[in-house]
């Protein structure tokens, strides 16, 4: 990043964690002087509506910030660009010091990384791979109400199963393990569906479809409040927001369920 000049202009991405500053629901646009950004550190990370998009180094201020999740309705390319900025700032603020010798780091010029000023050890942005999977049994889809979505008065989001990849695992092994750990279900016919950057704070969601093989639902109660098979012929519970890979997986699975009727 470099020092932002008062005449620098474009759209401005200011973040605090996985939240971003918006003005009337949009990214601020204009000169750095107009938004009191001159003197801060920043860099151009792409284009937004044909003009430069500046990422500003994270700072504590009194601006109003909104969750990145609120932007899921944006075109996918724009949402991914916002995710990129959020993850870049997360990386920079968590890597001020070298993980090898403890001395200060500085950002490299030729690529996006930080390098130790003492031992030269170079670190790149940390991306945590996670799987997310929709499981189908005939005309039904397996959906879970996670603890974080539980509402005491009933309702709450029901979604697909997900989890982080562990060291030495393939994605397919993670899919099998997570489904079995969380629900006691064994699955087969695992196939890749798609992926989504998920800057909360630095995940990469890798999506899969799978079919039921055997077992009865047995909940991992530390994480899952409820899990059920939902028929595509009946009303569904509250689902994750449009724009999430979870919602796309659910729609793809429901289409397969509907095909069972034909």
Automatic annotation (TrEMBL):
Task: Give me the gene this protein comes from.
Answer: nudC
An annotated GO cellular component of this protein is:
cytosol
- Asked if the record carries the keyword Transmembrane, the reply is no
Q: What's noted on cofactor binding?
A: Divalent metal cations. Mg(2+) or Mn(2+).
Can you name this protein? NAD-capped RNA hydrolase NudC
Identify the PROSITE patterns for this entry. Answer: NUDIX, NUDIX_BOX
Report residues binding a divalent metal cation 3: 178, 182, 223
Q: What is its quaternary makeup? A: Homodimer.
Q: Where does a divalent metal cation 2 bind?
A: 178
Q: Where does this protein hold a divalent metal cation 1?
A: 162, 182, 223
| Keyword set, alphabetical order | Hydrolase, Magnesium, Manganese, Metal-binding, NAD, Zinc
Task: Kindly list any coiled-coil regions of this protein.
Answer: none
Which Pfam families does this one have?
Answer: NUDIX (PF00293), Zn_ribbon_NUD (PF09297)
Q: What does this protein do?
A: mRNA decapping enzyme that specifically removes the nicotinamide adenine dinucleotide (NAD) cap from a subset of mRNAs by hydrolyzing the diphosphate linkage to produce nicotinamide mononucleotide (NMN) and 5' monophosphate mRNA. The NAD-cap is present at the 5'-end of some mRNAs and stabilizes RNA against 5'-processing. Has preference for mRNAs with a 5'-end purine. Catalyzes the hydrolysis of a broad range of dinucleotide pyrophosphates.
Name the residues that bind Zn(2+). Answer: 98, 101, 116, 119
Give every Nudix hydrolase domain span.
125-253
């Amino acid at each position: 990043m470099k020092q932002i000049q008062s005449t620098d202009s474009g759209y401005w991405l200011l973040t605090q964690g996985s939240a971003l500053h918006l003005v009337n629901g949009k990214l601020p646009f204009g000169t750095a002087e107009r938004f009191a950004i001159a003197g801060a550190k920043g860099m151009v990370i792409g284009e937004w509506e044909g003009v430069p998009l500046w990422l500003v180094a994270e700072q504590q201020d009194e601006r109003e910030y909104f969750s990145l999740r609120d932007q899921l309705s944006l075109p996918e390319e724009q949402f991914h660009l916002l995710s990129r900025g959020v993850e870049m700032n997360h990386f920079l603020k968590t890597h001020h010091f070298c993980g090898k010798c403890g001395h200060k780091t500085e950002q490299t010029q030729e690529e996006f990384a930080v390098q130790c000023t003492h031992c030269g050890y170079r670190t790149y942005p940390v991306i945590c791979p996670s799987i997310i999977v929709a499981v189908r049994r005939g005309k039904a889809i397996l959906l879970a109400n996670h603890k974080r979505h539980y509402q005491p008065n009933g309702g709450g989001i029901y979604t697909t199963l997900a989890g982080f990849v562990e060291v030495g695992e393939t994605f397919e092994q993670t899919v099998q393990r997570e489904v079995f750990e969380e629900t006691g279900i064994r699955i087969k016919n695992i196939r890749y569906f798609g992926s989504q950057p998920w800057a909360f704070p630095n995940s990469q969601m890798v999506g899969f479809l799978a079919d039921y093989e055997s077992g009865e639902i047995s909940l991992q109660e530390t994480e899952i409040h409820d899990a059920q098979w939902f028929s595509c012929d009946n009303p569904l519970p509250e689902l994750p927001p449009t724009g999430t890979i979870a919602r796309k997986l659910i729609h793809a699975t429901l289409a397969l369920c509907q095909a069972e009727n034909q």
